[in-house]
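step 3/5: co-fold with (R)-mevalonate
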Amino acid sequence: MKQITVSAPGKLMLLGEHAVVYNHPCLVTAVGQRMKATIEKIDISELHIEAPDVNVTDYKKLITDVGSGDIPKGAKFVEIAVKNFKEKHPFLGGIKVTTSSEFSSLFGFGSSSASTVCVIKALSELFDIKLDEKGIFDLAYKTVLDIQGKGSGFDIAAAVYGGTLYYLTGGKKIEKLPIKSLSLIVGYSGIKADTATLVNKVAAKAKEYPEVIDTIYNKIEELVEKTKEYLLAEDWGHLGELMNVNQEYLEKLDVSIPKLDEMIKAARDAGAFGAKLSGAGGGDCMIAIASPETKKSIEKAIEKAGGQIIQINTNVEGVRVEI
Ligand code: MEV
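step 4/5: write tokens
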């Protein structure tokens, strides 16, 4: 039976988290630890999922029942992606989806979004449906919204387009920035963050103090616009300074935590141009930008503060078929 394997990168938010949920831009880079999905046609009308990384093994469902009934947490994104694809591009017969990840789903690199993108791309290849990048983005973003209700879709864009993007909520703008390199130090806090909880926490704050939070979002947008210029000019010093300012606003939104604050301070004290949390906050990762000469000592300082260094490539290729 015909089968296809695709892979998609994870992501790291550079600047603009939270504000991007509310119609402001952000900057995101695709990271080179990838999610993989293999899809094959099977000769019974069922959906089979094997996703051992998220504890889903030997999961089987009638293809006519896809999207309904109980769905285990680890199978949700794959199953709803199949449902959304099938509704738009009906196909006959059954399929087996097998996913695997080069990175832990704990890091906050966007494993659910990357696997959603993999499934949509693999199905389009398997059934010979021509989908361009925006077509894949739209179906994958719909899947995430169906499951989470909220979300800017920046992680979907990183998985589809790759590279380093200037991105506006819902994919209203997706601009690939022509940069050659972006060297980031990434420290994992060891604490798993729950994006929905943090987004809701900020939403509750915005309800209570709409003008205050709106002002913060507008300030973050200004930082994103300026940082975009520094990124294009490869001016890492200024970029680092603005990362530090963005972190202050994230602290004002109350999404940072002491562990991240300590890792960020350690990186700055060891000579980083700048450091901030990356993503929703509440745990996951922090990022720092530094000269190659100071990289090693910054990594040591982050480890001393209790963080785990994760070696990644940035600015990597988006979703692709694997041979
Ligand atoms: C989470 O990684 C980033 C947020 O901005 C949520 C989103 O953009 O969907 C907090």
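step 5/5: annotate
The mean pLDDT is 97.
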